[in-house]
Amino acid sequence: MLNLTTYLLSRTGRAARGRLAQAAAERRLRLWHVLVMGALEDSGPYAKRELAELLEIGASDIAKTVDDLAAAGYVSCTRPAGDRRRVEADLTPAGRAALAEVRADLLAVEDELLAPLTPAERVQFTGMLTRLHPHIAGC
């Protein structure tokens, strides 16, 4: 069992997630916060429903996450002209700054966790995980 690839992948992922969560928590953020801010930076604004679908997060979880970020001043929620029912979340300048800081922390954790791998092995490992993820998610 200890040499089973899927078991090792699970244990490694759990340990990595814990380290990433710890780094985010040092900035008073959860990983969901970072994920939402990253999505908004990449191609926001989004309605909460769109964010939930994009990130595969439940509607109540995305609502809580966006509300947390809005309370911290990292996200603004506005109604676009012409659609009073729609509320869009977008990253604020403070949110962009916070995201840049936490991203640097998360990259430092990644560097530490992947230290045993050469740069070429890191690229190869990332490529394999990128191929595996959609397959496993679709199983």
Give structural notes.
The chain is mainly alpha-helical. It has one domain: Arc Repressor Mutant, subunit A, CATH 1.10.10.10. Helices cover 69% and strands 7% of the residues. The chain is built from 6 helices and 3 strands, in the order H-H-E-H-H-E-E-H-H. It has helices spanning 5-25, 31-43, 48-55, 59-71, 93-113, 119-138, and strands at 46-47, 75-78, 88-91. The longest helix has 21 residues, at 5-25. The model has no long low-confidence stretch (mean pLDDT 94). One of its GO terms (biological process) is response to stress. Pfam families: HTH_34. GO terms for molecular function: DNA-binding transcription factor activity.
CATH class: Mainly Alpha
Radius of gyration: 17 Å
In quaternary terms, these chains amount to single chain
Poorly predicted ranges: none
Report a brief summary of the structure.
The chain is mostly helical and 139 residues long.
Keywords for this structure?
139 residues; mainly alpha; Arc Repressor Mutant, subunit A; three-stranded antiparallel sheet; 6 helices; 69% helix; globular
Which helices and strands occur, and which strands form pairs?
Elements: H1 5-25, H2 31-43, E1 46-47, H3 48-55, H4 59-71, E2 75-78, E3 88-91, H5 93-113, H6 119-138
Helix pairs in contact: 1-5, 2-4, 2-5, 3-4
Protein name: MarR family transcriptional regulator
Domain HTH marR-type: 2-134
GO biological process, one term: response to stress
